[in-house]
Structures are given as structure tokens and as C-alpha cells.
Specification:
The protein has helices at residues 23-37, 41-53, 82-95, 102-116, 149-157, 163-170, 205-211, 235-241, 248-255, 257-265, 268-287, and strands at residues 177-179, 221-223. With 308 residues, it is an all-alpha fold. The protein has 2 domains: 22-142, Peroxidase, domain 1; 149-285, Peroxidase, domain 2 (Orthogonal Bundle). The protein has a two-stranded antiparallel sheet. Residues 10-307 form the Plant heme peroxidase family profile domain.
């Protein structure tokens, strides 16, 4: 665990040890309760934390309701799991009013989601405070599903994350699903041609076309990690090697030489162990991105609204 003991600007492991000793256990039990009735909540919470951190830092700005907030931006329209954060917040306010931030709930819930799906735990530094600004226009900081590796690298670098962090964090797609509308263009008339994306394995293509027929239901969900969508493992990387990445931006991790070498490290049994260690390390780095601590920001009473 010592390898993941990274401290950000004012965050530290055990921040609530005296002010709200049950904070972490309340979050983990809340996530577990929701997970038991809907396993899709785990990848949803992991994704929400990522989407929060990439816009204005990890300050729970993605949770704020409003007409032009981050929630309303196209990349965030598919986010799920707000009710889990609200549930945890309600319980925390009852136990320790005004102490635990929504930003910390998100960071803890992301870790707990990985553990529930079979991944290795890590120590989460806490002490973040909640932001008061949320702008849909800033969601362009999020990497897109068609972006080149160079563009993805630039967006990660802007958050203090390197190329290994990029590969590792995209590896979070080992759990969860996406919608046909985000990759069906790869299956038909790719880049204006009459054929499919050549990086898709030829024997895998009919399987994807059956799941997402041309002009079919664009909202239909398809696993990122074929055959292992509910298990946090390293098969996602094997799928990239085999030309079975679902998103174009994911498959490019294998077709681009600069990221392929990192993907190769996470193949096989030893690769799984390495991935688990590195995932916790990269999550701690990301979760310390642009955090507000001390007297910055606030501790929201309700996660979807700034304090009046």
C-alpha cells in the first residue's frame, strides 16, 4: 500500500479519522447496498469521478444541478449514480453534519466500486472541498471517443498525468458498458469508406454488427470488455491486442506504438497484478488534480446544489 500513499495539496489518508471516523465505512456500505441491486453502479461511479476530476479538478462540480452546468454537457449526459452519492451524503450529514465533502464521497465511491468488482483496494487521500462553479462549456477538457492518442496525451498531461496514467486509467473500461451510438460508425462506412474500421478484428466484426445493426437503436448498451464487463481484471488489454476494443479511442492504445508498450505490460497473470497496483497509483494522482483544500471551496450540504 505504501506505494500509493501520495498526498496532494492538503489531502491526506485518514483526514476524517477524528472529525467523522465512520465516513469511509458509510460511503462503502452505501455503495455496496446499491451495487447489490444494480451492478452497473460500479462503473458508473468510477466514470463519474473521472469526469469530475477532468473538469475544474476533483471538486464535485459535476454534481451541481442547473441549466448550463457540467451535468448538461454532452459527455456527461450518460452519467449515472447520482442517487448513490446523494444517499451517502444524507447519511454522512446525519452522522457528521457539514464535515464530509461531496468531492471526497466521489473519490471514495470510485475506489469502493473497483473493490466490489474484484479489483485491489488503495488508500484514498481525503480532505477535498467542494467547488461552487460548474460550466458545461468546460467539459471539452474530457477526452472523446474518437480522439487521437496525441490529443488524449495532451488532455491527460494538462491534469498532471503521464502516458502510463492514460493507459492505466482508460483500463477502467474493464468494467461497464457504452452505447452503440459511440462506436457504430466504426462498423459501417468508417471515415467515409464503404467498409469498417480496419483495426477491428475481422472475426469480431460480425458480433459487433449483430449487437449494433446499421441504423439500429443507438442507445443499446454494449460491454467495453467483452465477456468480462462486471469483473475488474486485465482482459480489457488482451482485447485491445486482439483487435476487440469497442471505442476507437481505446483501440488506438494498441495501434499507437507509444502506448502499445504499456498495454503489453498488463497482459497475462503478471500483467493483472501490475495493473491493479498501477491503477490505484494513477487513481490517487488523478484524484489530487486541482483539489480545493483548507479554506477554498465549501462543504456542500446537498451535493447537487451549492450552499446559499
Amino acid at each position: 500500500m505504501s506505494a500509493t500513499l501520495v498526498h496532494g495539496q492538503g489531502t491526506r489518508v485518514g483526514f476524517y479519522a477524528t472529525t467523522c471516523p465512520r465516513a469511509e465505512s458509510i460511503v462503502s456500505s452505501t455503495v455496496a447496498t446499491h451495487f447489490r441491486s444494480n451492478t452497473a453502479i460500479a462503473p458508473a461511479l468510477l466514470r463519474m469521478h473521472f469526469h469530475d476530476c477532468f473538469v475544474r479538478g476533483c471538486d464535485a462540480s459535476v454534481l451541481i444541478d442547473g441549466s448550463n452546468t457540467e451535468k448538461t454537457a454532452p459527455p456527461n449526459l450518460g452519467l449515472r449514480g447520482y442517487e448513490v452519492i446523494d444517499d451517502a451524503k444524507t447519511q454522512l450529514e446525519a452522522a457528521c453534519p457539514g464535515i464530509v465533502s461531496c468531492a471526497d464521497i466521489l473519490a471514495l465511491a470510485a475506489r469502493d466500486s473497483v473493490v466490489l468488482t474484484g479489483g485491489r483496494s488503495w488508500l484514498v487521500p481525503t480532505g477535498r472541498r467542494d467547488g461552487r462553479v460548474s460550466l458545461a462549456s468546460e467539459a471539452t477538457d474530457l477526452p472523446g471517443f474518437r480522439e487521437s492518442i496525441d490529443s488524449q496525451k495532451q488532455k491527460f498531461s494538462a491534469k498532471g498525468l503521464n502516458t502510463q496514467d492514460l493507459v492505466v486509467l482508460v483500463g477502467g473500461h474493464t468494467i461497464g458498458t457504452t452505447a452503440c451510438q459511440f462506436f457504430s460508425y466504426r462498423l459501417y462506412n468508417f471515415n467515409g469508406t464503404a467498409s469498417s474500421d480496419p483495426s477491428i478484428n475481422a472475426s469480431f466484426l460480425p458480433q459487433l454488427q449483430a449487437l449494433c445493426p446499421q441504423n439500429g437503436d443507438g442507445t443499446k448498451r454494449v460491454a467495453f470488455d467483452t465477456g468480462s464487463e462486471n469483473r475488474f481484471d486485465a482482459s480489457f488489454f488482451a482485447n485491445l491486442r486482439n483487435g476487440q476494443g469497442i471505442l476507437e479511442s481505446d483501440q488506438k492504445l494498441w495501434t499507437d506504438a507509444s502506448t502499445r508498450a504499456i498495454v503489453q505490460r498488463f497482459l497475462g497473470i503478471t500483467g493483472l497484478a501490475a495493473f491493479n497496483v498501477e491503477f490505484g497509483r494513477s487513481m490517487v494522482k488523478m484524484s489530487n488534480t486541482g483539489v480545493k483544500t483548507g479554506t477554498d471551496g465549501e462543504i456542500r450540504k446537498i451535493c447537487s446544489a451549492i450552499n446559499s
